[in-house]
Specification:
The protein is α/β, with parallel strands linked by helices. It contains 15 helices and ten strands. It is about 35% helix and about 10% strand. Bound molecules: zinc ion.
């Protein structure tokens, strides 16, 4: 079998492509030496095994609970149903929007999976925002809510700070439910928008914007830092080797990037300076690997809440610490997934908006199942580990699934 496969690959010109792909992307040639033909994707004893081909099947015989429905209705506070169409070097440009699905299709998943409502964070700017709110929120009252985004491309305008504050007021009047800050702020936005030195998270030009959010009761869904490993060299010690291999642009190591620590310090100065502004710190306060630090942050900043989006892989590999964290901060943790509809979402299986994703979140929160996948994917996409359920009591579950979001967004219970 193996011989036939190699012959076929070679004659199809794919033999060298496989090898070149591994070596870094040279052009394929038809004159591939026999030894450069790719090995089987499932090597057997005596053959070399590449990490990418290692897909061990767990031999544990443990209970597997399918949680098709959540114990209480769910509000998913972290989704991306639409995106600003154009962006340059990580900065959104213009008002044109691209929907990633239709409200009708999204509602099918929501109705099947017990999701009462979703907050679409990337709702756009100006006319784009109004269009998102019309198509989603107004057409399906109580099911979709939308966040506005800053118009970063106007940063150089001397009147920007006030213009941006006014835009928050206009967005609130148009029906926006929050402000979304992508990691554009701190890691992409530069003094000349796409060129020059990076703009810091606590840059004073945004102070009127944060204050406007407080004045108009718009919580700020903020994402300014990524897993700690994204700020470290991509080498054999990096636990997110696979994930960074698939998304090399997610690495913030080197060049002129700040360290993880510097970003967090800027974020802390921001939170301290705007105590009336509510900051929903996405992805478990940007540091799900360090619940001690997240706890300190929550203790220090009463205006901070967190959500779970794309971080049950972290929480579920430290189930005892996570259960204690949920118990202690049960009024300040919101359910979120960072869901992106397919096909776009398929590139990040830990976020793909489909039934299986929600069932994994429910299983993690509601059961004490052991050692299961945190994403619907053949290989764990964020790191090669599995997770353990934390079996939350009903009182905490209800708060995390719904009550805390109802309070933050000012919805009717
Ligand atoms: Zn997100």
């Amino acid at each position: 079998m193996e011989f036939q496969r190699r012959q076929w690959l070679k004659s199809a010109g794919l033999g060298a492509l496989g090898a070149a792909g591994l070596a870094g992307g040279a052009e394929p040639t038809k004159e591939a030496p026999e030894e450069s033909a790719p090995r089987s994707s499932c090597p057997t004893a005596g053959e070399d095994l590449l990490l990418q081909d290692f897909r061990p099947k767990s031999m544990l015989h443990v209970p597997e609970t399918r949680v098709a429905q959540p114990r209480f209705p769910v509000i998913d506070i972290h989704t991306h149903m639409t995106f600003v169409t154009k962006s340059e070097k990580g900065v959104a440009m213009g008002e044109e929007m691209t929907p990633l699905t239709t409200p009708e299709k999204a509602l099918e998943v929501m109705d099947r999976k017990g999701i009462r409502a979703m907050l679409n964070l990337t709702g756009g700017i100006g006319k784009g925002l109004e269009q998102t709110i019309d198509t989603w929120d107004r057409a399906h009252p109580g099911r979709f809510y939308t966040c506005v985004q800053p118009r970063f491309e106007d940063l150089r305008d001397p009147g920007y700070p006030q213009m941006q504050a006014d835009a928050i007021e206009a967005a609130a009047k148009a029906g926006a439910k929050g402000l979304k800050i992508l990691k554009t702020l701190g890691l992409y936005l530069r003094e000349q928008v796409t060129e020059g030195p990076l703009v810091k998270v606590d840059d004073p030009r945004f102070d009127p914007m944060w204050e406007a959010c407080a004045a108009h009761d718009l919580p700020v869904a903020i994402h300014v830092a990524d897993p700690e490993a994204f700020f470290l060299p991509i080498d054999c010690t990096n636990e997110r080797w696979d994930e960074l291999g698939h998304h090399p642009d997610w690495s913030f190591h080197g060049r002129d990037f700040p360290s993880f620590q510097e970003v967090m310090e800027a974020r802390d100065r921001l939170y301290a300076r705007h105590p009336k502004t509510q900051f929903l710190s996405l992805h478990l306060g940007h540091d799900a690997e360090n619940l001690g630090f997240v706890s300190e942050s929550l203790d220090r900043f009463p205006n901070m809440t967190v959500e779970l989006g794309a971080r049950i892989g972290e929480l579920g590999r430290q189930p005892r610490a996570s259960a204690k964290f949920f118990d202690r901060y049960q009024d300040r943790i919101l359910f979120g997934t960072d869901a992106v509809p397919p096909p776009a979402g398929e590139a990040t299986p830990q976020q793909v908006f489909k039934d299986e994703l929600y069932e994994i979140y429910y299983r993690f929160l509601e059961t004490e199942d052991e050692y299961f996948d945190y994403a619907p994917a053949p290989v764990p996409p964020q790191g090669r580990w599995r997770i353990y359920g934390i079996g939350l009591p009903e009182g905490i579950l209800k708060k995390v699934y719904q009550d805390n979001a109802v309070r933050l967004l000012g919805l009717d219970a």
